[in-house]
Amino acid sequence: MAPLGAANPYTLHQSLNYAMSRLLGICLAAVLSLAGLLGWGSTAAAATVEVKMGTDSGLLAFEPSTLTINSGDTVDFVNHKLGPHNVVVEGHSELSHTDLAFTPGESWTQTFSEPGTYSYYCEPHRGAGMVGTITVE
Ligand SMILES: [Cu+2]
Q: Which one, of 135, 136, 125, lies nearest residue 55 by Cα?
């Protein structure tokens, strides 16, 4: 039995434990709300996907030629082989890039904001089958 007037060491220990767990709980809540603000764990974060113009194996094609992305994602069109290439998106001049890319490594990006199916082709090589489809979900 502890003498009157002195703090009971057991009670003091319990209070500290309680304070620490309260503090941890507050910290955890703060981290979780910060994560929410930053969009961690969300699948809606915009991505950038590369499409090569001219395949690794030397074909006149886009690689990949079919692609599914989320609205807000960006496609990075990279002049890879057998240029010149460009991209004409059927019915969407605002998404097209009609300037020809001659230099390997030359690239441009295009963001797709609206869901839909977009057919596109390379003007010089359309007849050779250099066509592609981008589905935006
Ligand atoms: Cu081409």
A: 125
